[in-house]
Amino acid sequence: MINKLTILKKFWKNKKVFLTGHTGFKGGWLTIFLNLLGAKVSGYSLKPHKSLSLYKLANLDNEIHSSTFADIRDYKKLKKSIIKFSPDFVIHMAAQPLVRFSYNQPKLTHDVNIMGTVNILNILLEINFVKSALIVTSDKVYSEKNNKNFKENDRLGGLDPYSASKSCAEIITNSYNQSFFRKKNISVATARAGNVIGGGDFSDDRIIPDFFRSLQNKKKIILRYPNSIRPWQYILDPLYGYLLLLMKIHKKKIFSENSWNFGPKKSNNKSVITLINLINKEFNNSVEIIKQNTSNLNYHESKKLTLNSSKSKKILNWKARYNLKDSAKLISLWYKKFKEKKNILKVTQNQIINYFN
């Protein structure tokens, strides 16, 4: 049987991919993934704002084909960068990705997540030579009136500014598809993943980085919503789904199906405290865990989110591979290698290669 990694390499070798948000956690992993497949990646993103980032640790400045550090809201610079690179594919990941931050900066969140998406879509419309693109949104785009296993055609919504902005990105993308892109043979899909976790995440206000900061500083970790259920998934599961989806789009084997869920195994729909206990166990339970009383918090956060990925399984032949225990072990291994000052690019590449073994 031909290894799936070999199939990916055959398709992606020398393909030109314009990737926004390449300095972020998911963007860094996807840059490494695409480079490993032989693709040429041009990134467009803000500079990594911290001394610790996957982009810097893996020296991706030296690995990427070209890089532009700029704001996704800068229409002229964004368009100029895309035209100059002349890509085969566009993947839009650049975003303000944090729910709590969106309460403090609602206008910024909407500006970046809505108008950033509009900029990408309108440039695709104007240039008319990129025929395949992907807009990455979130599992939080669904209306929460029914806490169920959300399917792609379920009602969209969003109580917090982040979720609302991502729902708007979905609606706007569909509008461009219906109004313009289908007539021009351009296919733009949206991808909704679960709570993506993995090594190399150093973000503020995210549970995995918070744990490792507590471990590093020998401090307690405070969990705001310890019993909230999330669709945890290791980063390689959705990234693999994104690449399969773009391959199908490019080959014109799908066209009308524009939104896609890439959720984890059902067994991964676990509480925050379950995930942290699994990772803490890998470090001999070194971190003391405090459950915070959230009754006085003045913002909303979903208690339960799960995704139905049956469409991706049926049409793309995609499925999540790692369970929560596997994910906890891989995350812990990545951070142990990081502390041992191992070659981070090779550590990350090895996890990608092992994913297909």
Can you walk through the features of this model?
Helix 2 (25-36) packs across helix 13 (344-355), helix 4 packs across helix 6 (106-127) and helix 12 (324-339) packs antiparallel against helix 13. A 7-stranded parallel β-sheet has the order 3-2-1-4-5-7-11, with helices on both faces. Strands 8-10-12 form a 3-stranded mixed β-sheet. A two-stranded parallel sheet has the order 6-14. The chain has one domain (4-355): 3-Layer(aba) Sandwich (Rossmann fold). The mean pLDDT is 93. With 357 residues, the chain is an alpha/beta fold. The chain is built from 13 helices and 14 strands. The chain starts with a helix and ends with a helix.
Element layout with pairings:
Elements: H1 4-12, E1 16-20, H2 25-36, E2 40-45, H3 54-57, E3 66-69, H4 75-85, E4 89-92, H5 99-104, H6 106-127, E5 132-136, E6 149-150, H7 161-179, E7 187-193, E8 195-197, H8 207-217, E9 221-223, E10 229-234, H9 236-250, E11 259-262, E12 269-271, H10 272-282, E13 289-291, E14 306-307, H11 310-316, H12 324-339, H13 344-355
Parallel strand pairs: 1-2, 1-4, 2-3, 4-5, 5-7, 6-14, 7-11, 8-10, 9-13
Antiparallel strand pairs: 10-12
Helix pairs in contact: 2-13, 4-6, 6-7, 10-12, 12-13
